[in-house]
Write a structure and sequence with these properties.
The chain is α/β, with parallel strands linked by helices. It is about 25% helix and about 20% strand. Strands 1, 2, 10, 11, 12, 13 and 25 form a 7-stranded mixed beta sheet that branches. Strands 7, 17, 18, 19, 20, 23 and 24 form a 7-stranded antiparallel beta sheet that branches. A 3-stranded antiparallel beta sheet has the order 16-21-22, with helices on one face. Strand 1, helix 2 and strand 2 form a beta-alpha-beta unit. Helix 5 packs across helix 16.
Length: about 600
Amino acid sequence: FVTERKMRVLLLFVLLGLSVADPPTCSQKPLRKSYDFIVVGAGTAGTTVAARLAEDKRVSVLLVEAGPETEERGDVHMPGAVATLQKGNLDWQFKTTKQENCCDAIDNVGHWPRGKGVGGTSNLNYMLWTRGSRGTYDRWAEDFGAVGWSWKDVEPYFIRMEDATALGENVHPTSRGFSGPIKVENPIWRAEYHEALLQTQIQDGMVFNKDYNGENPEGVSVTQLNTFKGKRWTPAVAHLYGKQVSNLEVLANAMVTRVVFDNEGVSEPIATGVAIKLGKTTEEQQAAEEIIVSVRRDVILSAGSIGTPQLLMVSGVGPKADLEKLDIPVIKDLPGVGQGLEDHVMICQSWQSNKETILATSGTPENVNAWMKGEGILTGSGLSQVSWFHTGARPDLKQRNIPDIEVLVADFGCISVLFDALVGVKKDHLPAESQRDTHGVSLCSMLTQPESVGEIKLASKSVFDAPLLNPKYLSASRDAESLRRGIQRVFNFMNRSIESGPLKGILGDHIRYGNPHPVNSDAYWDYQVRNWPITVYHPSCTAKMGPKSDPKSVVSPVSLKVHGTRNLRVVDASIHPTVVAAHPHAPTVMCGEKAADIIKNDYK
């Protein structure tokens, strides 16, 4: 999708720390006055649903993206450059409000990178390909009224969308796809401690699970990544790059400022189009003239779990009282918009390593050359193993075979630039200098099904002003208990293995992140849970699907239309009734695939 010569030139810029100029907007055609479908947001779901709708050559599709084109961005395609993409021009750079119950190590404010550019957050994520437990989807259908979204309903789309050929024999025999657009493979590069770390977890009672995307994710596994020969493989790569689709136009550097409605003399307001401002920078977009583009069938919001509820509310669809406070004309009073916010948090524990791992200096010319050949440390994002287990804190989840903790193995220790500039760790919470920027490994315990629920509210009536994001982390007591049990188990099996097990002589000292209390004391674990939860970048559920009778639901699970409106649908992770017990990239692609079929069937 990018020539080798172009890639080498672009990567030279990356290695030298220079900025990469934005390519021109994707669409070189003059905008039409109207399209059959307008999809807002060229991210994971938006790209998928737009491409699938465009398979019908009788319809026209406009895919609108606020950020730039990314096809020729070498840093996007290199998995090992993933951390360098945060806080740049491909990141909305959101922050949460102050958190009351945790996150002291990061001054109680979470940094939420969200993708801005063609490809969306699939340009920034760590490429982990996880479907999640089947019980998650059955819970959606049975407990939240999401009819048509049980496991038996969504499994065919997971199969259709993926190409897991590169996994070889390490797959479930009947539940994996081999001819879909999204490539999936195991990490090409693995640290020398890889096998010893697998054995450590098996000795702690976990089973080896060769395919966590099969029947059950429980156990320890080698990760699966949406990469191909060591290159990031996003829905944009799969569906857009290098392809000429005559009836699909992609307009980058185009901010949708509102959905346009006709609500005169109708019982339900009708979405008739969108208002757009063009510009390569936020300042240019703010100063630009508004362009109205009309739609003949549907406006489809795929702006993500932050952008979609924000755009709904500035357009007049949301909680009436909140809209009136900002003098936004109320088109539809819908209290659930922006509510129901769920996100995954994790606590990482690190050990120094005697073997090579990822460092801030890993982007050497030698490593880049290896990556160009599909080899070496830069072919992956540093996530090599994953495990799921039950802590006992959530018997309700165990009944559905949904583990409450996921543990990710990250092939790096304390990288100062990552912890300081990107995560925002306070200086007094960093480890001693002798434990920084050395080879290491981190095991990060993630809470899979939080009971804590937050909200998104508008800061102003302008879509250019970041909304107020309050996930209310650990406001539910069982969340803290699951995390506590999870990190204790990890700490104990790691230390046993380092002292006298498979990791002896391979890993060294535990890296202390500012915790002043005696190791393994109650005060030590209280400190960890209070100080160290950080986001895993998975905000979801802010325009959730459910029946009209549920005042917290926003869209119909049958049609994905916004309740009480016409010609307006939502297709992204904001519709999830609960955050999936996994990384939501694959489930969000699935939503785009299933949504395309729903919409096509509506217009048969």
